[in-house]
Specification:
By secondary structure, the chain is mainly alpha-helical. It has helices spanning 2-110, 115-134, 141-159, 174-194, 207-222, 234-242, 244-253, 255-258, 270-284; strands at 163-164, 167-168, 261-262.
């Protein structure tokens, strides 16, 4: 009997041990399943979180790009505005400069003319009108000789102290001289167009002198500061003086056109003219 009780007791202990082990195994399985489920449940959330973070980062990147583009556009706009402003300022300065130059030219052409300037300019305009009429009369020798006489007389006025209505070239203002040279140059060019090379046909000894005179007159017409009587040169000065008796016949033919011009060349002897030139040269050295 005692022995049976021991067997039952030990059997019960084994049974309880088996039950305990089963409970432990069951509990472990449930715990593992719970953890597995928890991990599985959290994995989508983690992936979703990562996706959200990536979207946020992309949005930030796009925003930064847009911000950079906006800043670049602002910079370009600012640069364009600055360039436009600089161009406007430059154009304004150029316009002001041109306006000032125009005003200066207008001042020189009107306000600085003296009574003597006006007297000479008016008479030269009359001479130019008469010369225009002469040049329409044909190509014969009489027309050519009168045209030569007009130019010789004008050279006398510009270089040899001749007078137009009592006024010499050196008595004119700078503005007056330039206007006079413009008119004389215009007359010379019109005769040249009608009779090419006419100055060389005046006299073989004076062709260089008259061509040089024409050159200086043309320069002075563009800028009076480029004109100077002594630039004609001593040899050219003397060649015209020495040929004065040959030249006077041309001026006589043109008398009806240049009648208000008093010649210094024709009113003095050759020796007196040379004395006058020597004095003139000393004064201009």
């Amino acid at each position: 009997m005692k022995q049976n009780k021991e067997i039952i007791f030990y059997s019960l202990l084994v049974f309880l041990g088996i039950i305990a082990i089963g409970l432990i195994i069951y509990t472990d399985n449930n715990t593992n399943n719970a953890l597995s489920n928890s991990v599985n449940e959290n994995t989508p959330n983690t992936e979703k979180l990562e996706e959200n973070n990536e979207v946020i980062e992309n949005e930030k990147t796009e925003e930064n790009k847009e911000s950079n583009i906006t800043e670049t556009e602002k910079l370009e706009t600012s640069t364009t505005t600055n360039v436009t402003s600089q161009n406007k300022e430059t154009n304004k300065q150029v316009n002001n400069s041109n306006s000032a130059n125009t005003e200066k030219k207008d001042t020189n052409s009107t306000q600085e003319l003296s009574t003597k300037d006006t007297t000479v300019i008016t008479e030269l305009n009359n001479i130019e009108t008469s010369t225009d009429k002469l040049l329409t009369e044909g190509n014969d020798k009489s027309v050519l000789d009168k045209a030569k006489g007009v130019f010789i007389t004008l050279v006398d006025f510009c270089f040899y102290d001749g007078e137009i209505k009592g006024v010499t070239f050196n008595e004119l203002t700078e503005a007056g001289k330039e206007k006079v040279l413009k008119i004389v140059n215009s007359i010379d060019q019109k005769i040249e167009n009608k009779f090419p090379g006419y100055k060389e046909k005046i006299s073989t000894k004076t062709k260089s002198a008259f061509n040089k005179a024409s050159e200086l007159i043309k320069k002075g017409a563009n800028n009076v500061k480029d004109f100077a009587q002594d630039k004609l040169g001593e040899e050219n000065y003397n060649s015209i003086i020495e040929e004065k008796d040959e030249l006077v016949k041309y001026t006589k033919n043109a008398w009806n056109i240049v009648k208000n011009v008093s010649s210094n060349l024709w009113s003095k002897t050759t020796s007196k003219l040379k004395d006058w030139y020597e004095k003139f040269r000393e004064e201009n050295e």
